Amino acid sequence: MEATGTDEVDKLKTKFISAWNNMKYSWVLKTKTYFSRNSPVLLLGKCYHFKYEDENKLLPARSGCTIEDHVIAGNVEEFRKDFISRIWLTYREEFPQIEGSALTTDCGWGCTLRTGQMLLAQGLILHFLGRAWTWPDALNIENSDSESWTSNTVKKFTASFEASLSGEGELKTPTVSQKETIRRYSDDHEMRNEIYHRKIISWFGDSPLALFGLHQLIEYGKKSGKKAGDWYGPAVVAHILRKAVEEARHPDLQGITIYVAQDCTVYSSDVIDKQCTSMASDNTDDKAVIILIPVRLGGERTNTDYLDFVKGILSLEYCVGIIGGKPKQSYYFAGFQDDSLIYMDPHYCQSFVDVSIKDFPLETFHCPSPKKMSFRKMDPSCTIGFYCRNVQDFKRASEEITKVFF
């Protein structure tokens, strides 16, 4: 009877924490995020400028976009589609119980694991789909009727984003028929992309069998002295992700590995060794590598001298984002505008989705609206991620990253 009573108390605590987090963070999700039409927006190496409708017009001097950047001018919808296509992983509730605990939610403690998952997911998207890929249904997400979204919040989010752009007029989103429940894919290539899109998301499902799901990450975290319910820092998560990829036995994942820098130092020879299957291998045998660099950008607070460094990192096509946030609140940083960082927030608690079911719903794995945060509020402890497809790509990335440092 005592054990049963304890279980009931734990379940009550879990429900209370979930309700509290949703009350605390849902209003943040509903809050408008303001974007300027006069400043470029950088998102994981892509540059968007909302002001110019004519692609032949030159961007203003010192706009932040260079000739080498992938500049997309005057198209808010392209930015929205690109942002929404990134995989969003948040708190979940009512998933299978985590072994060794009574927990069926990560609400209140799993945010850094979630941002780590988002960074890894972006690396896998680059690996299998490429940076140019966007989800064909991204702009349809406002019609989601998933029970995880209440009071038409998704529709409000997308509308508020477009309304938030300062300047003349309001940009419209094409209306999509609610009867369109099944997308017809135009060719085999598009179908293949959608298969990998679903496959990548399924690897992050909240079940013990998911390769990079919460249950597995917690298991790998035990070697670092962590357990379910603990708070995980960005550096610890970097090593957990490395272990998870190393242990993955899926045939699709044999061509990718993770390298974690020690003391903010990346040793090129060590990275290349991880990429090559043998000393005699040529480039056809190279493995792709995700490089994770845990860093501290200041003392108790982030040193503002690092602002240009962070901007430079997020401007690189090799960047897969930053595991960072505010103190004790982890965010996935994916871009910036002016001195504000663009991020995805994992703190909204959503219902468990069984990704083993064919055609499981995708809407709750894509964030409909970007958020911004002043760089000054950033916690100094973070982990930076890069993706390199092969050894030659790593060498090119090293040159670009060196330019950012110096």
UniProtKB/TrEMBL annotation:
Coiled coil: none
Residues of the Peptidase C54 catalytic domain: 77-398
Keywords on record: Autophagy, Cytoplasm, Hydrolase, Protease, Protein transport, Thiol protease, Transport
One cellular component term from this protein's GO annotations in UniProt: cytoplasm
UniProt cross-references to InterPro entries, sorted A to Z: Papain-like_cys_pep_sf (IPR038765), Peptidase_C54 (IPR005078), Peptidase_C54_cat (IPR046792)
Compartment list: Cytoplasm
EC nos: 3.4.22.-
Name of the protein described by the UniProt record: Cysteine protease
Originating species: Enhydra lutris kenyoni
